[in-house]
Design a protein that fits this description.
Elements (H helix, E strand, L loop, with lengths): L4 H20 L9 H12 L10 H17 L8 H16 L46 E7 L3 E3 L5 E4 L3 E7 L3 E9 L7 E10 L9 E6 L23 E7 L3 E6 L4 E8 L2 E9 H4 L12 H4 L6 E2 L1 H11 L18 H9 L7 H13 L3 H16 L27 H15 L1
Antiparallel strand pairs: 1-2, 1-11, 2-3, 3-12, 4-5, 5-6, 6-7, 8-9, 9-10, 10-11
């Protein structure tokens, strides 16, 4: 059963990837104990960084115990992707290590955790810390960002930038691990300008890490705790892998969900709420029914009939030299901004004339509320903190994906096309 170090490194990489896969795609059927099998195998084999010939018998024993564990839970794991992946992985490792399927299957020893790591169980140290599950032989996770702020402006996980109506309740995120829903209400009576007045975040129960927790914020109420009064994930051993931290009382909270590698920032700016999240791609795409992915805004963006081309409206406003609303006969805002005074005001906090700056100008013209300038400023500050690609912090062009029926005519100069859109918009007023 001897083996060289080269083969050992390959095998090590393979069984390090297994727990990552099983953490990302947890068993949907609770009686399926594949995660327990995986944890026991990982605990029994994680102590060796190099598997030499003298360690192969011990590794094969642990591997047989792993196979025996999967057979015991086979009946309850039918159709479970994690289970079938583990079974195929075991077969591959058996061949690579020249392990016999017949032999001792003693229970694997449990790895001893270093002092101070009391929040993680010794038999499943990786499950409650997403980033720790990525070893030096595995690719680092790829993080994405989504944000919602202002009247309201949306930056999706794919860095598209949209301005939307979306009045009422809309899902921002809906995957296997958490659900986020926002409610947008009119800023002024009779106005089509809306902003986020309520936010609900549901963290779903996850293995040995956290109980289901619900966070809810509303206008003038930004609590620093879940609705049950707790500030962490509950009574489970990995409870502190989910934490709420109050940064500024009544204005800024941060939620760390380490078990899914996710950071959420919620702010109250003026009377309304802003939302920003940093999340691994694997978690973003962990959706059981992929056909339903288009239902949530952070992934697919707002429906076309809910999108507003604020850049076209902004151009029209600049052309006329006076403030415009998103529709005719809107009530006057509390403070009237001209296009020039809105530009000057936004430059105080947003010196770069990107889409955050343009959103600020649009919101001041639409609402007359200087707090919307601060909302755009803090939204960009959150992007700087949360976005993994520093080259994509600023966005300069409208990034809404145009459908075939929504594209510019072939051969039309872009500047002329924008001018035509502005003229059409003015004619409709």
């Amino acid at each position: 059963m001897g083996m060289g170090r080269g083969a050992g490194s390959t095998a090590l990489g393979l069984f390090q990837i297994l727990p990552v896969f099983l953490c990302i795609f947890p068993s949907v059927t609770s009686p399926c104990k594949i995660l327990k099998c995986n944890s026991e195998f990982w605990a029994a084999t994680s102590g060796s960084h190099h598997l030499g010939a003298e360690e192969a018998p011990e590794f094969c024993t642990a591997l047989r115990a792993y196979a025996h564990c999967t057979r015991r839970t086979a009946r309850t794991c039918r159709g479970d992707l994690a289970y079938h992946s583990a079974v195929h992985g075991i077969d591959d490792l058996m061949v690579q290590h020249n392990c016999s399927k017949d032999g001792p299957t003693s229970q694997p020893r449990l790895r001893t955790l270093p002092p101070g790591d009391s929040q993680e169980r010794s038999d499943s140290p990786e499950i409650c810390h997403y980033e720790k599950s990525f070893h030096k032989h595995s690719a680092a996770p790829n993080y994405t960002h989504c944000g919602l702020f202002g009247d309201p402006h949306l930056r999706t996980f794919t860095d598209t930038f949209q301005t939307c109506k979306v009045q009422g309740a809309w899902p921002l995120i809906d995957n296997n691990y958490l659900n986020v829903q926002v409610t947008n209400t009119p800023v002024l009576p009779g106005s089509s300008a809306t902003a986020t007045s309520k936010l609900t975040i549901i963290f779903k129960s996850f293995q040995e890490c956290v109980d289901q927790k619900v966070y809810q914020a509303e206008m003038d109420e930004l609590p620093a705790a879940f609705v049950d009064g707790s500030k962490n994930g509950g009574d489970k051993h990995g409870a502190n892998s989910l934490k709420i931290t109050e940064k500024v009382s009544g204005q800024h909270i941060e939620i760390q969900a380490k078990y899914i590698g996710t950071t959420i920032v919620v702010r109250q700016v003026g009377r309304y709420l802003t939302f920003a999240v940093r999340m691994p791609e694997e978690v973003v795409n962990a959706v059981e029914d992929r056909d339903s992915q288009g239902l949530y805004l952070c992934l697919r963006g707002c429906p076309l009939n809910q999108q507003i081309d604020f850049q076209t409206i902004r151009s029209a406003q600049a052309t006329e030299g006076r403030a415009r609303r998103k529709g005719p006969s809107l009530p006057a805002p509390p403070e009237a901004f001209t296009y020039e005074t809105a530009m000057a005001k936004c430059r105080e906090k947003l010196p770069v004339e990107d889409l955050y700056f343009q959103s600020c100008v649009f919101d001041l013209l639409t609402t007359g509320d200087v707090n919307f300038m601060l909302a755009a400023y803090y939204a960009f500050e959150d992007v700087k903190m949360l976005h993994s690609n520093k080259d994509k912090l600023h966005l300069y062009e409208r990034t809404r994906v145009l459908t075939p029926g929504n594209t510019a005519p072939t051969g039309t100069h872009p500047t002329l096309w924008v001018a035509l859109l502005c003229l059409c918009w003015l004619c409709l007023l």
